[in-house]
Amino acid sequence: MPSKKRQIGSGKNLEGAMPTVQDQIEQIRHNLQHQAQSINLPSPSLEKWRYVLPSTFTKMAEYLEKKTSVKEDRFVLDQLSHDKIEIYFDGKQLIIPKHLKQAGVIVQPILSSNIEQVKLQQLLCYLKNVSSSPEEWLTRYNAGQFVNGLFIHVPSSYKSDTPICIKLSGSTQKFQNWCHLIDAASHANTSILIDALGADESWHNQVFHYNLSADAHLQVYNISTGQKDSLLTQHHLASLEDSASFLMSSLIKGSGFVRQQTTIDLRGNHASCNVTGMHLTQEKQQHHYVTTVNHLCPNTQSEQTFKGILKHTHKLNDEKIARASFLGKIYIAPQAIKTEAHQSYKALLLAPEAGIYAKPELEIYADDVKCSHGTATGAIDEDMLFYLMSRGFSHEMAATLITAGFLEEITNKIPEGLLRQSFLSPISL
Amino acid sequence: MTNIVLDIQNLHVMRDGKKILDGLNLSITEGSLDAIMGPNGSGKSTLSYVIAGHPNYQVTQGTISYLGQNLLNMSVDERARAGIFLGFQYPIEIPGVSISHFLRLIYNSRSRQLGEKEVDSFTFLKKLKELRLQLGISEDMMSRSLNAGFSGGEKKKLEMLQMVLLRPTIAILDEADSGLDIDALKIVASTINQQRQQSKSIVLITHYKRLLTYTVPDKIHIMSKGKIVKTGNQDLALQLEEKGYDKVIKAPIAGSV
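ok -> structure tokens follow
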């Protein structure tokens, strides 16, 4: 039964009438919450979680124990008189730039009084289809617990090189489950910069759902720079129709623990995605990338390029060394002929004790496809260091140059201007 | 009296437990051009690496004095900043490091060292263009990664460009002539001659006489089994060309200085 206390927006469940979409959403969330309580947290016995340190699960369990009920946040839409490039979403306030409104870009909390029924249908569809796999427990938990999130709709007329910048600055809640829906209509073309700032002693469990219609082009730049004692778990799910293209570029630096999962479904002919990621992991941080690209249609293309740098100055025990992993999977369905998919992960170990784990996977059920994958891990090349030092650079400066050069394959693809400045500022190499 | 820039006495060097230099003596004076020739495996490249401070070589005995300082107590970068330049036989490829950015960094760093003013990007690019044209280096090379995917000749020209920008007191050029066509060889020789005119000391390590046709050394040293076995003038190079290393090394000293 839907909870009367949790009625949202204008939805009303009159006795005897058909349940509204809002009520259906509440019902699903209620069920998901109930199911989540009976399932255990993921553990290292699950493939997609195998490289996460056991202490992290203990910490997650502590958060779950403390935070069992969901409190509703109110969202205030503040219309500014001047244009502003950034949208701040801290769970309480949302500031929308005027030029976006004028261009027909919708940015609003998902659960607000003026959300269109069609968008609620989309949310309903997403909630109904959330995976029941134990490995996806956090995504399922998010669907059951989320208080709110952003809904962004990019209309087909909207084409802009200026990114829509979103700062997710964290709510006052220690454990937060936001779910964001991003919808790009046919022929839309834009970039979104997401800056997830985790506060100390907080766990942000976020889900981003991207829906790209035919010929839509969406570029997402995602920065994760939380405080050292923060946990950040993200799941980015994208669904692409015919000839749509999705670029996802992420940078993880900071936070005690970050696990970024990306699942992309190439559902339309000639749909393509390019997923890149960098992690700069040090001291006792853990950074984990989990990506899955599902080629479900012919002539689809995917490219995954990930690079990582690990370093620390003190090794105390296995629980206190830098650790990172990359689990990358390419799935090619039987019908997805003429598909091209490539995946690469390279890591530079600046501390030999740091732990790096890589597992590339190919699951191919179609003939006539081109696929490749590869991983490489190594220390800084001594000859490179010698060469640069022989030109007068200190050891530290030489290592910095080599490190920046190592990441350049990814950083050089970030467009010049504001986006590049914002996206690369945390690494300042 | 001519100033001695580099003075090597009784140098013994090992790598991975193997003796490579065995009591080598060599003195380089200010503004001189010395050529070191010798058969494969005689230790020529090792000598250049040891002078530059490569960590994989262990000096077990002997001294190297640079302008009166104990060079062996200095790190690789300290030696470079003190004015020692090594032109690599096989320049190392460093992906992702833009050449023009790298060149400006080393130029300004050396300027600071020499107490000169650093230059802004515009002034540097102007200077770079001038040098680039002199060395026959194309503009598109400047936007590429350092040495990455370059031909042998391109790499050697870039080493010359770095030498000019770094303004060293002494340059040790390890096979600066290998992989060069005749035009590039003349450009390299001309750059060496210009450095010489500015009283820079140059040590050329080479297998062949052809570079020495365009830039005539003050002395030619022949290395064999980890030490200098003969020192002479240009005639020594001619003898090597005619008779080969084995006969010249064994023959009584002719044309020595």
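Chain A has two domains: 19-379, 382-429.
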